[in-house]
Task: inverse folding
């Protein structure tokens, strides 16, 4: 039997890098919120719709990212492998080890990814109703998406904070019961981990199986190849 896989902690360089990513993403969000406030004469009820749409959009993207990391690629890829792919694969083997990650380690990567997205929002012309709508959607999307890993961690806690339990019960964030559906071999469904709202629809329509068939037909690579091989190796 091979030793149990664990999430890898970071060093002091990683600590400060993740801290800067979190601070940087927060500053960018606040700057964009200020831009939206400055254009308040262009506000309309449609802005509420942009925020509402951003909620399931963030959940859908969390599922796409999760599915990609679970299904394709290798942990040996430079940068992406150890930083993004490996944590998802390790999490299947030892799901509770994720609870040992501190706040920075849990949220640093999502903030890192959000920074270039938030920087791109500077190209949105906000001097029109459509521009304010687009920027509001983008900022709301990032606000919902950035804490995805933290929400994921809460879904694995036996006793998360009381206010988190309330959010889980109302369905605003991912529940333990919903995420438990993903942690069943071969870990091939219920990928969305922001609030899990999209899972029922994506599973009903076979969305990810459809994407896998397309990719396999184009590349000849079957889904979950590396994880299946590693799982078989660990059984020896």
Result:
């Amino acid at each position: 039997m091979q030793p149990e896989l664990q999430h890898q902690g970071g060093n002091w360089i990683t600590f400060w890098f993740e801290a800067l990513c979190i601070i940087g993403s927060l500053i960018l969000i606040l700057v964009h919120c200020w831009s939206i406030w400055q254009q308040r004469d262009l506000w309309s009820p449609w802005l509420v719709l942009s925020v509402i749409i951003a909620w399931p959009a963030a959940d859908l993207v969390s599922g796409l990212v999760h599915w990609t990391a679970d299904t394709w690629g290798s942990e040996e890829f430079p940068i992406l492998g150890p930083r993004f792919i490996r944590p998802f694969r390790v999490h299947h083997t030892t799901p509770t080890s994720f609870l040992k990650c501190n706040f920075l380690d849990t949220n640093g990567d999502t903030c890192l990814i959000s920074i270039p997205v938030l920087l791109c929002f500077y190209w949105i012309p906000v001097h029109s109703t459509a521009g304010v709508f687009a920027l509001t959607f983008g900022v709301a999307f990032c606000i919902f998406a950035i804490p995805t890993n933290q929400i994921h961690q809460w879904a694995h806690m036996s006793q998360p904070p009381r206010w988190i339990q309330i959010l889980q019960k109302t369905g605003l964030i991912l529940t333990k019961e919903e995420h438990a559906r993903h942690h069943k071999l071969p870990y091939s469904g219920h990928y969305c981990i922001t609030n899990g709202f999209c899972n029922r629809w994506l599973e009903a329509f076979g969305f990810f199986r459809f994407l896998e068939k397309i990719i396999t037909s184009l590349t000849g690579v079957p889904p979950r190849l590396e994880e299946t091989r590693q799982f078989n190796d660990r059984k020896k």
In short: The longest helix spans residues 12-38. Confidence is low (pLDDT under 50) at residues 1-6.
